[in-house]
Amino acid sequence: MVLLENKKCLCCGADFVTKPRVIPKKFCSEKCRTRYNARVSYEKNKNTKEYKEYRKKIFKDWLDNNRPHFNDLCRERSRLYSRKRYTERVKNNVCVGCGRIKEEERQSKRLCFACSRIQTVHDKEYHDKKKLQSNVPT
C-alpha cells in the first residue's frame, strides 16, 4: 500500500499530493518551481552591484537597437499625460498653462493673463524667426 502525503506548494500555496518515499517535492508543478526559483534568485541578486551593472548594460544594448521605438514610447506617454492634465484643468476652470486660478475677467479664456502674455511673446518670436528665415537668400 502506497501512502500519500498532502503538501502545500511553496510558490502558489496550492495543496498537492506526493509520495513520501520519493524525492520530497516542494512544488505542485514544474511551472511553479521555475517561477519560485526565479523570484528567489532575483530577490537575492537585485541589490548587488554586479546585477545593477548587468541590467544597465542590457538596457543600453536594447536602447542602441530600439532608439526610435523608445522615443515613440516616451512621446506617447508625455502626450497622454499632457492631454489628461489639460482636460482636468479645463474641467476645474483653472489656467491650462500654469494651473493657477484665473483672474475674474479671464474666466471665459483658457489662459490666465501671465500665460497669455508669455504665449503672445512666444508667438511673436516664432513669427519673427520665420520671417527672417524666409528673407535670407540661399
Structure, described:
- This protein is mainly α and 138 residues long.
- The protein folds into two domains: 5-45, no CATH class; 66-131, no CATH class.
- The protein contains four helices and two strands.
- It has helices at residues 30-45, 49-65, 67-91, 113-135, and strands spanning 5-8, 15-18.
- The protein has a two-stranded antiparallel sheet with strand order 1-2.
- The longest helix has 25 residues, at 67-91.
- The protein is elongated and about 90 Å long.
- It starts with a strand and ends with a helix.
- The model has no long low-confidence stretch (mean pLDDT 86).
Question: What is the chain-wise order of helices and strands?
Answer: EEHHHH
| Helical fraction | 55-70%
| Alpha-carbon Rg, integer | 30 Å
Strand order across the biggest sheet? 1-2
Number of domains: 2
Question: Could you state the oligomeric state of the chains shown?
Answer: single chain
Q: Can you count the helices?
A: 4
The whole-number mean of residue pLDDT values reads 86
Structural class: mainly alpha
Shape designation = elongated
Low-pLDDT ranges? none
Number of strands: 2
What does the secondary structure layout of this molecule look like, with pairings?
Blueprint: E1 5-8, E2 15-18, H1 30-45, H2 49-65, H3 67-91, H4 113-135
Antiparallel strand pairs: 1-2
Question: Can you give me a brief rundown of this structure?
Answer:
This protein is mainly α. The chain is built from 4 helices and 2 strands; from the N terminus they run ββαααα. A hairpin with a 6-residue loop joins strand 1 and strand 2.
